[in-house]
User: Fold these one by one.
Assistant:
Number 1:
Amino acid sequence: MKRTVCLCLSLVLFLAACGGTTGPNATRTESRTVSTPPAGITPLRDLAQKRAIFIGAAVDYDALQNEPQYAYVLGSEFNILTPENMMKFDATEPEPNVFNFVPADAIVKFAQQHHMRVRGHTLVWYNALPTWITNGTFSRDQLIAILKQHIMTEVSHYRSSVNIWDVVNEAVADDGTLRQSIWERVIGPNYIDMAFSWAHEANPQAHLFYNDYAGEGLGTKSDAIYNLVKGMRQRGVPIYGVGLQMHVSTQYYPSTQDVITNMQRLAALGLKVQITEMDVKTQDDPNPPAQRLQDEAQIYHAEMSACLAVTACEAFVMWGFTDAHSWIPIFTNHADAPLPFDTNYQPKPAFFALEQALKEQ
Ligand code: XIL
């Protein structure tokens, strides 16, 4: 019963916040009686702002379009967002030189209406490529021209609205070598430097990131990412920061101290860092469900604390915010609960752990 009331009132607030269609007389009483956001007393975004970081989530376009509660929680709790799939190559250039920015534009508009930053994700990845790229046979020069045009067009389209870009995503393999991909095979390793220069040319103000997973703490892959970006800095490539994805699980996650040490060595290169895609898999946790949620909460606390401990850490972004919309159950083909809100948009222990970490000085 309580939840139903909460959902309805949230809907009213959402419509009002969007300059919605509730009409002059509609539901005025309800919207006046609700003065708090859906989860904590103070929205996470306000707590984060006091600590000089951004807090955010990846956005599922369909959920944003279809679920008022999704949009309401997103807009009230977070001040930065990442389109989960709609800025990727297959979504934005489905046919050669045919660009589609309609879904991504809608997400950017939502961000603007709610005073949120946008992380553009992602310009160059081995995945999410349209078939005309994966099935094509291109010479090196042709592929360079294609990639340049793709990057210049997308970054230019968002020149006034997106100033953070994951330029290159997941270019390092798990063993620390350069990942094999069409870009690496046809263009060669310097596709990475090229991509950053073109993004910079299209928007010199943009903050350009290299983004990857499993390099958050210390180890072979983290060393490889460190060496990659160190080389880029030495060559004068316009890289601004490193995105640490932070797809972790209750069974495996980097310690606060290792993440701090890694962030600090990146900062010593003159780079910023952001946690860009955090979620916590719980499906392999042998503990009962309630304990799993506590384990998950403790990991959110640990990684948020790492970000707060390092001045160069600018943002803490999760790969979604509600268990109703997470890529993990699809990707692993197994039920899971990796995010700080449950499937009914109610805050979980992980939410309160983030809140607590943000309040701790
Ligand atoms: C994932 C999306 O969440 C899925 O919906 C999609 O099917 C595949 O891509 N690292 C990244 C993200 O950088 O772009 C990925 O997003 C998750 C892993």
Number 2:
Amino acid sequence: MAKTTTKTTKVATAKTEKKVEKPAVKKKILFVASESTPFIATGGLAEVIGSLSKALAATGRFDVRVVIPLFSDIKKEYRDQFTYLGNLYVHLAWRNQYCGIFTYVKDGVTFYFIDNEFYFKRPGCYGYYDDGERFAFFSRSVLEIMPFLNFYPDVMHCHDWQAALAAIYLKTNYCFREEYQFIRALFTIHNIEYQGQYSLDLLSDLFDIYGKYQYLVEYNNSINLMKGAIECCERFSTVSPKYAEEIKDPYYAHGLDPIIRNNAFKLTGILNGIDDVGYNCELDKHLYANYTPDDFSNKAVCKRELQKLLGLPEKTDTPIISMVSRLVSHKGLDLVTNVIEEILQDDVQIVILGTGDAHFEGFFTDLAKKYPDKLSANIVFNGDLSRKIYSGSDIFLMPSKSEPCGLSQMIACRYGTVPIVRETGGLYDSIKPLVNGYTFSNYNAHDMMYVVREAIANYKNKEEWKKLMYRAATTDFSWSHSAKDYEALYLDMLK
Ligand code: GLC
């Protein structure tokens, strides 16, 4: 009797099991990066980490986690809410360092923060004599906390040189252990200019890499961490298709082009998206007035208030050209400084926001004194003011010499401000001439000026200009496309 009962039960269970579809197991993705919004941001990298992780988690198909250092500049409002999980000691060459782990869940993404006051209790994120050691410790910690968290990702997605060693250590030290053997590494280059280069003497003493692995990180007689990550990862990517092509060329590659060309078979370019809820002219609380692509009338309020705020004459029909940028040469400032006085002869106002090289800061400050009615130079980094400028201006200038992706041209579009860009990297991929902006191809000041003048002239044609603003404001820069591309890349890596 007993036997029969068991048999019947088994058959019954098998039948029910057929009917119930098991939910697919989520793929585990771990982002390794040095910064992420909303906690700490010095540039576009942080925005991508914050918004891409959120977009991937929102698909419901990924368990997305992010690990960053616990810098002391992390906003207190968040830090106070972090949960302490525990600590361990991390071995690196002869060092044995404390590693505390904090966590916080936001928008479906689990964040981890690596705590070590000796390395991270300092103002800012970078620029210290021991950055190599700080990020070596960070990268090593990422691998060491996995057993503690009992979380071994399917894909460890490392971003920029600060996380390069995580991909390198995985291949040199960890992948031989059972739990780590299936982790795949993806390395994303956000900017090839910063490669993490150090003297070869530091190889074993600082980075804990020995003889047989030297060839992986050695390049031009130095340690090059970006090169090492490219060699060690299963795949690498960069933040636009055009930049993926460009970095094969010495003009863009800052010396790494032979490495990129040799590894091109595993390179992909995926254009960044932006957080289209965060940047929305209809909802943004920072604006003087909200508006929509169907009714731009309140954009005039934003413009008038901006002019008032910056002490510029309140002229409705004079186009405002803005630049929100780090004031450094590769953002195209050499072109701007060359012809800006010629452009100022036209009926325009120019607004600059940003900090950077002292000579550009000084140049714009002096010029604002010379043309107080036409130029406003704001040598600060100010998120609130940047949104008032994006919304209150008419034209956004971004003539970068190189631009891996660039986010500002997309943000400008979202506020109905028409971008003028040079056709490079993500600027080329996101802005199409007369569809949603203006473009020029050669890195030449007069080519830029020609297009600026074309835009100023077209601005007078109100009806056509409104259509252009509409097309710019309604271009889809959300993560929906790019998150799909990352998803496809992850799945391909896991085949
Ligand atoms: C870097 C690049 C920028 C890109 C950003 C995010 O800051 O310079 O072009 O948009 O990373 O990927």
